[in-house]
Amino acid sequence: MNGGIFDIPSDLQNTYWGLVGLHLRLALIPVVAGLLVALPISQLCVMLRWLYPPVLWVTTILYAIPSLAFFVVLIDYTGQTELTVMIPLGVYSLVVFVPAIVDGVRSVPQETLDAATAMGLGPWRRYFQVQLPIAAPAIIAGLRVATVSSISLVSVGMLIGNQGGLGNLLNDGMIYHQPRLVWLSVIGTAVLAILADAFLVLVRILVTPWMPRGNRKPRPVDEPEPESRPEPAAAALEDAVR
Amino acid sequence: MIRIDSVTKRYPDGTVAVDNLSLEIPDRSITVFVGPSGCGKTTTLRMINRMIEPTEGRILLDGKDLAQQPVNTLRRSMGYVIQNAGLFQHRTIVDNIATVPRLLGWSKDKARARARELMDRVGLDGALAKRYPYQLSGGQQQRVGVARALAADPPVLLMDEPFSAVDPVVRKGLQDELLRIQEELGKTIVFVTHDIDEAVKIGTNVAVMRTGGHLAQFAPPAELLSNPADDFVEDFLGADRGIRRLSFFSTADLGLLTTPIVAVDSTAEQISERSAGDVPYLLVTDVEGKPLGWSEPARLTAGAVDPERLLPYGRPFEHGKESLRAALDGAVLSPTGWAVAVSADGRVTGVVSQQTIGEAIRAAHAEGDPDGRTDGRTDAKVAG
């Protein structure tokens, strides 16, 4: 130890940047998996209208399950592994993705769909060439919420033994009474969330050159609105503490 | 030829959208379905590209039952234009137009080259090619819609209220453009509208439908106007049926007077020579022969004609090209009761009185058979 501000206790068996990488991996893989699962579910909800309310209901119920409860159940099957942290995070993301995708796809004007059908685009082409691209802004909006909330939620993984990325550092900071470690964890998590969000805004601008400029003008620094976004994290931490 | 053979569309809740409809849509002409909302006109159109399947009956294209053909292949062979264009907002104009060629497996370059050619054909500036739909006006978007429908050069074009959502001036432009394109391409066009004026203006044949999916009358527009099948059709055609019918009579045979016309720089001698006879007014033209206004011969002084003091000449009609309706309109608009005939470049070719126009109308009615489509369609809406 040479006293650098990024030095961390050896019991974490990692460097600060290693923890950052771990944190991102734990947070983002579930989001991507959640998106891939949500796409077909949402399409079913679009095609079968009656299915949407129950699906929404189920995702909300799942979201209400505390992560600790998830861990208790999952540890029997997946042990103290990354997978045990990722599964609940992926399930939580559905509550954001399903409505975002369904609303996005439904926002495609009927005449656009009619035109696509009339020009001889079959259902698959219609989905991939028309509905999905037009729903992209809504999907990316959902992706931003899911990503930021997942980044803040990962920390609870510390509860099952060093599977919380930067959350482990928070834990250590409290055990060793070292505020520096707590700040490193909290600020590091916030910066990751902001950078990920800014990246997604950039992606949206790049993939939707067809949107009227007024709507797609990025805010100068696209903050993830700290007041509202960490709420799920706070709730989850409360759950965890309980 | 598209043959609609005893087609009925009944929905599970018992609603009958189209009731035992039979008619033949001839090739290379514009067939318009017109009627109030709920008359089944759009349903009929959508049964032609199988977006709706008939409950009973069948539709044949060139003798082949549509139901036997692969649906997407069939649709790619029929252009489709709808209200508000229904463009793909996430694609550039050129890629919107290239949609069907791409589906048919054309290379990207070839499809885009074709798309640019079509932009030109429908009167769109090539500079718009890389724009997105939101950057275009409603009228421009509708042109893109027409170009997109024509992209793969389909023999059949289905148009569902394509011009209903644009303002009247733009609509008239689009209608004229459609007629011009049709003259060049000769497609089999099926056109749905609720606007009887539009139907009369662009239709080669008009199918008037009534609520419940019944065909009330199927006839060329002139016949519709002169001889409505029943009260419903007559009511639907609205007022001014007689006047509107004049749109279908040519002015080619109208006897023009060429004597009571003087140039603005005429000498006193020429003026007195021209005012011989019992013509109450003289038409004064500029040195190029374009009309300036009417004057009583006595008030005309050589070399001192004040264009401000001339009587208005109304709206001149293009002789031989525009219809008797335009001629009558011109005569009614002028306080002198005389209409001014001009050539394509706006030079006066003669003048004609209300009496002469009235005689021509009576003669035309006596013949009974309007002289076909080419004269009437260009100005069917001019006076209305």
From TrEMBL, chain A:
Keyword Transport: yes
Region of interest called Disordered, as start-end residue ranges on this chain: 214-242
Compartments, record wording: Cell membrane; Membrane
Domain of life: Bacteria
Transmembrane residue ranges: 26-48, 55-77, 83-102, 134-161, 181-207
Swiss-Prot/TrEMBL keywords: Membrane, Transmembrane, Transmembrane helix, Transport
Topology of this chain in the membrane: Multi-pass membrane protein
Pfam families hit by this protein: BPD_transp_1
Record PROSITE patterns: ABC_TM1
Residue span, ABC transmembrane type-1 domain: 20-204
CDD domains xref list: TM_PBP2
Ranges of biased composition (kind: Basic and acidic residues): 219-230
Family: Belongs to the binding-protein-dependent transport system permease family.
Protein name: ABC transporter permease
Species of provenance: Streptomyces spinosisporus
Automatic annotation (TrEMBL), chain B:
Keyword set includes Endoplasmic reticulum: no
Keyword Amino-acid biosynthesis applies: no
Pfam family, one: ABC_tran
Keywords: ATP-binding, Nucleotide-binding, Transport
GO MF annotations in UniProt: ATP binding
ABC transporter domain segment(s): 2-237
Region feature (Disordered): 363-384
Family: Belongs to the ABC transporter superfamily.
Protein name (record): ABC transporter ATP-binding protein
